[in-house]
Design goal:
Length: 286
């Protein structure tokens, strides 16, 4: 049994529980088991409990809001409809999670989705790989949600945490591997993956430094520089990954289409997003 399987077994689990008294007969057992699996096939981490099996692992954590129409990717409406924007968000999550999943097979990391709101766990059943865990988000502001996700996972016993956005479906797994490698180096430091718009697509850390998430003008072009400044103020070394970009407006959506629908781009890059965009472009011009 690998380290990940140990984590899955040893974490305290909380699951959505329907009224199983409905299934009264032996012939209903198949239906009962099917419903149980479909309602929430993932382990939900209880951060109040630590786990020895987490030692030595990096928590590769994608930050996500339940992909519901009208609640996600609203800046892409138009050119997309609310339903299309929600479906695109699902594709982003599938591709990002798939890249993370390809890394955790090396037993150096765990795949985790830090999600909100509570009660939507089943929404991820057909989006995330089976080897993912879920972590409920805490906090009100975006900075608080990032900080508490890092704090909760480090408290569980992970050696390090990488918080990853869900807006960058073309990120290659090599960037996650590079972040893990840097965080394994002795001594405290952070890793940042800068975005072209002035934000970052990844922040990796080994200790829960709250200062990194305070006095930050979130959703502006100042996020990356302000975060690097906070790190310097508390004496933290900052290692940088290669630049990336996130997709949160019409201009960046056009950039994504140009990249993924180009014949020079490998079919292995963001396949779910590529298929969605191909279908949309076939219906109308973005």
């Amino acid at each position: 049994m690998g380290q990940y399987e140990c984590v899955a077994q040893l974490f305290a689990l909380r699951r959505i529980r329907p009224n199983w008294n409905f299934f009264k007969h032996q012939r209903d057992l198949f239906v009962k088991n099917f419903v149980r699996q479909r309602m929430n096939p993932f382990s939900v981490i209880d951060p109040t409990l630590s786990c020895q099996a987490c030692r030595g692992l990096c928590a590769l954590t994608v930050m996500t809001k339940a992909p519901q129409a009208g609640q996600v990717k609203t800046r892409l409406v138009p050119p997309l409809t609310p339903d299309e924007a929600a479906e695109l968000n699902k594709c982003f999550l599938r591709d990002t999670a798939a890249a993370i999943s390809s890394v955790i097979t090396n037993n150096e990391a765990c795949g985790i989705a830090a999600y909100t709101p509570l009660g939507v766990e089943a929404a991820y059943a057909d989006i995330l790989p089976a080897d993912f865990n879920l972590l409920p988000q805490r906090g009100v502001s975006f900075g608080e949600r990032l900080y508490f996700a890092a704090e909760d996972l480090l408290r569980c016993g992970f050696d390090s945490v990488c918080l990853i956005d869900s807006d960058s479906p073309t990120l290659p797994a090599t960037k996650f591997l590079e972040a893990i490698r840097i965080l394994k180096i002795q001594g405290d430091r952070i890793v940042l993956g800068p975005c072209d718009d002035g934000g970052y697509y990844l922040i990796g850390l080994k200790k829960p430094h709250r200062e990194l998430f305070e006095q930050i003008d979130w959703s502006t072009e100042r996020v990356f520089e302000q975060t690097r400044a906070r790190a310097r103020e508390i004496g933290l070394e900052v290692e940088l990954l290669a630049h990336g970009y996130d997709v949160d407006d019409a201009a960046s959506l056009h950039r994504l289409c140009k990249e993924l629908l180009s014949q020079s781009t490998s079919d292995s890059v963001a396949p779910s997003t590529r298929k969605f965009l191909t279908d949309i472009v076939a219906q109308r011009k973005l």
